[in-house]
Amino acid sequence: MPQKIKLAIIYGSAREGRFCDTVVNWVAAEVAGHQQFAIDYIDPRDLDRNRADVARRLGDADAFLVVTPEYNHGYTADLKALIDAHSIQWQAKPLAFVSYGGISGGLRAIEQLRLVFAELHVVAIRDTVSFASAWSKFDRNGTLMDPRDARKAMSALLARLQWWAINLREARANTPYLEVAA
């Protein structure tokens, strides 16, 4: 049996009463249908509690999936703090995005995050899942009311994330990334 892909699902918000939990729960249920992934949840709130543990968990991950809101045309300060607190843990690994927000569905936050993660040598895959007017898409129990398009997009995202994760894991094992430009 092939080794499972260690997928770190990263919360993009640390606000009290955040909608991020609803979207992360949907993402986790979709990922659970793909048996090749083993999920670890990383919350920006964890950074204050145990920075070393967060660093270890990010380092252990084969791939990342950031679930981010868009606040004021950008991503959150809490997510930026989590990203900036680490460097080598991100390198030579794939990352995908699920975003949510108002009319733009969080896409402006993703565009900014792509620039940040490129600086950290992360392979951000093109595919995304985005929820415009997210609060109207989920019922009060957190169930996505019309999941067809989102599930199709998520399936493509996970297939491509899996491909990148397997191939980059193999590449890192063959040649540690820190040795490439040493």
pLDDT averaged over residues: 95
Largest sheet: 5 strands, parallel
What sequence of helices (H) and strands (E) makes up the elements? EHEHHEHEHEH
Number of DSSP-assigned strands: 5
Q: Could you tell me the strand content as a percent range?
A: 15-25%
Number of helices: 6
First-residue to last-residue Cα separation: 35 Å
Give a quick rundown of the structure.
With 182 residues, the chain is of the alpha/beta class. The protein contains six helices and five strands; from the N terminus they run βαβααβαβαβα.
Descriptive overview:
It is a single chain. With 182 residues, the protein is α/β, with parallel strands linked by helices. 42% of the residues lie in helices and 21% in strands. It contains 6 helices and 5 strands; from the N terminus they run E-H-E-H-H-E-H-E-H-E-H. It has helices spanning 20-32, 44-49, 51-60, 77-84, 107-119, 148-174, and strands at residues 5-11, 37-42, 63-69, 94-101, 123-132. The chain has a 5-stranded parallel β-sheet, with helices on both faces. Helix 4 links the parallel strand 3 (63-69) and strand 4. The model has no long low-confidence stretch (mean pLDDT 95).
